[in-house]
Amino acid sequence: MDFFAGCIGGAAGVLVGHPFDTVKVRLQVQSVDKPLYRGTFHCFQSIIRQETLFGLYKGIGSPMMGLTFINAIVFGVQRNTMRLLGHDTPDEPVPGGRSSGHHPVCHLLPMELAKTRLQLQGTGEKKSSRKLYKNSLDCLVRIYNREGLRGVNRAWSPH
Fold first, then answer.
1. What is the pLDDT of residues 56-90, one digit of tens each?
2. Is the pLDDT of residue 111 over 90?
3. How many angstroms separate the CA atoms of 159 and 85, rounded?
4. 93 CB contacts (<8 Å, ≥6 apart)?
5. Domain holding 31: CATH number?
6. Is 4 left (phi over 0), alpha (psi -120 to 50) or beta?
C-alpha cells in the first residue's frame, strides 16, 4: 500500500509542479542581454499564448515515469524501515528518511536531462517548428548515440 501511495503522490506532485519547473527552466536559460520574459507571471503568459497550456507540460513524460517510480520506492522503503526498527509511527522519521533518501542518481540524471531538453525544444534564438526529440525516450537514445553514457549522465557531481 505504501508503494501505491508513493506512486499517487509522485504523479500528483509532477502534475502540479511541472508547469512551475518549465517556467523556472525557461527563466534560467534566457539571455541576460535580451531576456524573453519580464518575470515569472509574464513567462507563464507567454508560454500559454505561444504554445497553449500544453507548452507548460513539455517534457513531463520522464518525470512522470521517473518520479512516480522513485516516490513509490521512497514511501515503501521509508515505511518498511520504520516497521523493521519498531518505530511504526511518524514520531521518529529520521531512520526511515535516511534509508529512503539515498535515491539512485543513475535514475534521476537521465530523467532530468530529457525533461530539460524537451522543455527547451523550440525555444531560444533558433526557433524551429521541427521537433528534435519525439519524447523522453527518443531524447535519451539520441543523446546516448551522440555522446555515450557520459552524455546521458551529465552533471553527476552536483547531484
1. 999 998 888 888 887 777 777 777 777 777 765 55
2. no
3. 29
4. 78, 82
5. 1.50.40.10
6. alpha
